[in-house]
């Protein structure tokens, strides 16, 4: 997996004419900045932003065959097995919006088994973006997060605290945004990430996610423009 260089990128609209729509996977540890970058990628390239949680809920609500299977496990309080999740993902990627606009798969696959199952199901991407952030910075990012229960807006006590004292007073910390719990999540992440990356060596781009969001966006844009131009 190669490291991306930060070079300026032309507008996607100018370079993507007549090309196949982009198919992107973005990966990174909790608080690596995936959500922020997904919003930018979605807006810039017009791809469909997909997370497994949203796809599972939609499949259950729509009553699809794999949605019914997923519902059985969810109703029983069990983890949905990989083969069902892969079925949900494959069904979603075959829908017309994903075929015409391209897609951005957010935080999936999480394990090498899931990556291999995706490949076996015929799902392939053009680019695998990996946001690399040191663990100590990830812990700081997570533990400083606070949510406004009134608006749902997320703040950070160090990087983006609210200006309003009334808002500051009512902020809440999620129960799993503690140092102890985030370290457990990071251990789980590190146990699988190298093997997952190994499935995408040919299309992988490793990005320094410790930089400011705007700088990370520039590097991602350069990497995606290279794919568009290829």
UniProtKB/TrEMBL annotation:
Name the domain of life this protein comes from.
Eukaryota
Q: Does the keyword S-adenosyl-L-methionine apply?
A: no
Q: Which SUPFAM superfamilies match?
A: Microbial and mitochondrial ADK, insert 'zinc finger' domain (SSF57774), P-loop containing nucleoside triphosphate hydrolases (SSF52540)
Keyword annotations from UniProtKB, A to Z: Kinase, Nucleotide-binding, Transferase
The name of this protein is Adenylate kinase active site lid domain-containing protein
By its UniProt entry, which PROSITE patterns does this protein fall under?
ADENYLATE_KINASE
Looking up NCBIfam families in the UniProt record yields:
adk
Similarity comment: family membership: Belongs to the adenylate kinase family.
HAMAP family reported for this sequence: Adenylate_kinase_Adk
GO MF term (any one): ATP binding
């Amino acid at each position: 997996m190669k490291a991306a260089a930060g070079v300026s990128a032309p507008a996607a609209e100018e370079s993507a004419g007549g090309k196949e729509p982009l198919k992107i996977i973005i990966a990174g540890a909790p608080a690596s900045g995936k959500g922020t970058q997904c919003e930018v990628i979605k807006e810039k390239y017009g791809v469909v932003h997909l997370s497994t949680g949203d796809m599972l809920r939609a499949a259950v609500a729509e009553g699809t065959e794999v949605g019914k299977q997923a519902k059985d496990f969810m109703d029983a309080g069990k983890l949905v097995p990989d083969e069902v999740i892969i079925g949900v993902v494959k069904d979603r990627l075959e829908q017309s919006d994903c075929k015409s606009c391209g897609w951005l798969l957010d935080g999936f696959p999480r394990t090498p088994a899931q990556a291999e199952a995706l490949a076996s199901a015929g799902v392939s991407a053009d680019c695998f973006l990996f946001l690399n952030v040191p663990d100590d910075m990830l812990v700081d990012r997570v533990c400083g997060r606070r949510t406004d229960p009134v608006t749902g807006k997320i703040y950070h006590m160090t990087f983006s605290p609210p200006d309003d004292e009334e808002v500051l007073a009512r902020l809440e910390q999620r129960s799993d945004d503690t140092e102890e719990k985030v370290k457990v999540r990071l251990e789980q992440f590190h146990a699988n990430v190298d093997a997952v990356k190994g499935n995408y060596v040919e299309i992988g781009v490793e990005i320094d996610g410790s930089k400011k969001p705007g700088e990370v966006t520039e590097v991602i844009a350069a990497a995606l423009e290279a794919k568009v131009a290829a």
